Amino acid sequence: MEIIFGIDQLKEPFVNPVVTLGNFDGVHLGHQRIFQRLKDEARKIHGEAVVITFEPHPLKVLFPGHCPPLLTPFRKKMLLIEKTGIEKVLCIEFSLAFAEISPSEFVRNILVEKVNIRKIIVGYNYHFGKGKSGDVEILKNICKLFNISVEVTEALTVDHTVVSSSKIRDLIKDGEVERASKLLGRDYPIIGKVIEGSKRGYALGFPTANLEITDELYPKTGVYAVEVNWENQIFHGLANVGFNPTFASTEGGEKGGFSLEVHLLDFDQEIYGDEIQVNFKRRIRDEIRFDSPSHLIDQIRKDIQWAKENVF
Q1: Torsion angle of alpha carbons 225, 73, 52, 34, nearest 10°?
Q2: Which of these three, 115, 137, 158, is where a domain ends?
Q3: Number of structural domains, the chain?
Q4: Distance, first Cα to last Cα, the chain
């Protein structure tokens, strides 16, 4: 997949481009349906299916400090879009100056003059331009002036729930990763580099891979059954998301720092510095403070057995 960073880096127009625009946080089933329509329509006119997105996320620019954690930081989003079969992504830098562009200026100056679009496909709730003043009806009216076709996809529902990034975000924050997976069309992944930790897990007989913490969205604290992708191999495991309260209490310390630790079953490789993908399958229990490490060991054994019987 080719990623073009910045409208100024678009050296020549796309070939009969069919375009969709948005932030696509999560790359969920609704987004995937739009991407499929994009490819189908581009194929009909021997054109290119082009996804236009924005970086940084507009909320990070317009409301710094108040942007919710993202389901898919930029790199993860690009990996997921590539898996849908999209071959061209135009990433426009979002700035305060860009936010001042009116809907008509955006269509004329960027979509028509720079991108040379033939058709636009957007979701039913698409908004654009200064202050989100443009909606799908305004988009249709502006595009009619340039003889550009606009297709609006309806809301997608799964199990009577409208698929949206905000809904998925809420489910993950509540630890409902199974329900979130149904709306995403896959398990919710965290991709990160394995860093050196305290090695407490190794001392307990359950060595863990500690992931570097980023600003993406993490599931509710607790213990989860997970699948881990390392070097294109899949392993089962348990993940602890939280603050290690048992060791804070037994060592006389305060609440520990937030961490994501993964114990891979039947695995004995050295993976410090490697990147792994942790796919959350099911929440097992809350994070608990145990009276002693031995009680924690007993519970881990029970968690592993439960996961083997109910998930793997």
Answers
A1: 20
A2: 158
A3: 2
A4: 33
Give the separation between CA 148 and CA 110, rounded to whole angstroms. 14
Q: Give the model confidence (pLDDT) of 172-228 as tens digits.
A: 999 999 999 999 999 999 999 999 876 676 667 788 899 999 889 999 999 999 999
Q: So what's the pLDDT on residue 257?
A: 84
**Are 118 and 245 members of one domain?**
no
The burial class, CB within 10 Å (0-12 / 13-18 / 19+), for 63 is exposed
| 175 in a structural domain | no
- CATH number for the domain harbouring residue 212: 2.40.30.30
pTM of the complete model:
0.91
Q: Are 56 and 15 contained in the same domain?
A: yes
- Other C-beta atoms closer than 10 Å to the C-beta of 310 total 11
Q: Which domain holds residue 295?
A: 188-310
Can you say how many angstroms the Cα of residue 9 is from the centroid of all Cα atoms in its chain? Answer: 26
Residue 260 has a CB neighbour count (10 Å cut-off) of 22
**List of residues 6+ apart from 193 with CB closer than 8 A:** 211, 212, 273, 274, 275
Predicted confidence (pLDDT) at residue 268 exceeds the cutoff of 90 = no
Give the whole-angstrom CA distance, residue 189 versus residue 218: 9
pLDDT, average across residues 23-37: 97
CB distance 53 to 92 below 8 Å: yes
Q: Is 242 left (phi over 0), alpha (psi -120 to 50) or beta?
A: left
3-state SS class at 130: helix
